[in-house]
Amino acid sequence: MQEGLAEKIKAIGHWRVNIRPLQPIDPPLPMNECHERVAKASVSLRGWDYPHIQRNTEHGGAANVGTYAENWCDWSHHVEFWRMYRSGQFLHYRALWEDLSDEGKNRPAGPALSVLGAVYTVTEVAEFLSRLYNGGLYKDGASINVTLGKSADRQLWISEFDRMPFYDEKRTNAEELVIERSFHAAELEGQAAAVSLSILLELFDHFGWNPDPSLLQRDQERLYKRQW
User: Fold this and answer.
1) DSSP string, 31-74
2) pLDDT digit string (tens) for 45-97?
């Protein structure tokens, strides 16, 4: 991975996703399979895949590094890297596009988090986990940790053009927000939308916003139908 990329991401707002098998994977994954499982489970619902598979070496690349395979991208507001370990652990860091671009209507001053962007990202994360399970990787279940880093003084933002902004500020003062879940195999079967909804409701609660779950479910349905 290019020098300084991890530090660049961690210095600004970012998502950190860590997935671990509940039981050790034996035998360990071959290195080529680490790449292949991520590629097969990658979610592409809105023009940029999760996690992103970088094939153009001008703006990123891929490598085998001892115990893990990795892939990275540093292009415009797409700055991220992921690692799939031979143990089955998956680790992903992605910079918030909100911190790399000043575009957007009704944008609040200071650090912001797009509500729709968060809904889409967390939904993609859960769908990716579900696809890894369906591909046979986590037969005994898995744990997931979703962290929003550099969240202090960050404000929720209605970035869509067709919705009214918040009447009052929805803000968190926590330096990072950490949400963890563990799932047995049966709980991962066809439950991606429910898993992501649970994580989103906890995430937004940290900002003092407790929407009707149906509001977020409608956004999830639009994403799956590619109606964004």
Assistant:
1) HHHHHHHHHHH-B-SSSS-BS-----TTSEEEEEETTEEEEEEE
2) 998 899 999 887 788 999 999 999 999 999 988 999 999 999 999 999 999 99
pLDDT mean over 110-123: 96
Report CA Rg, the chain.
17
With both helix axes pointing from N to C terminus, report the angle between 192-205 and 115-134 in degrees, rounded to the nearest 10. Answer: 140
Q: Which residues contact 148 (CB under 8 A, 6 or more apart)?
A: 13, 14, 15, 16, 113, 154, 176, 177, 203
Alpha carbon separation from 19 to 130, 138, 159, 172, 219 (Å, rounded): 11, 10, 29, 25, 24
Instruction: Look at residue 167 in the predicted model and tell me its pLDDT.
Output: 87
Are the C-beta atoms of 135 and 40 separated by less than 8 Å? yes
Tokens of 55: 């094939």
Query: Nearest-5° angle of CA 151, CA 154, CA 160?
Result: 120
- What strands, in cross-sheet order, belong to the sheet with 60-65? 60-65, 68-75, 78-85, 90-95, 14-21, 142-149, 176-183
* Cα pseudo-dihedral 81, 86, 89, 95, rounded to 10: 0
Tokens of residue 142, six digits: 């898995």
- Residue 162: pLDDT band with limits 50, 70, 90: low
Q: What is the per-residue pLDDT across 133-156, written as a single tens digit (0 to 9) for each?
A: 999 999 999 999 999 999 999 999
> What tokens were used for 226?
């590619």
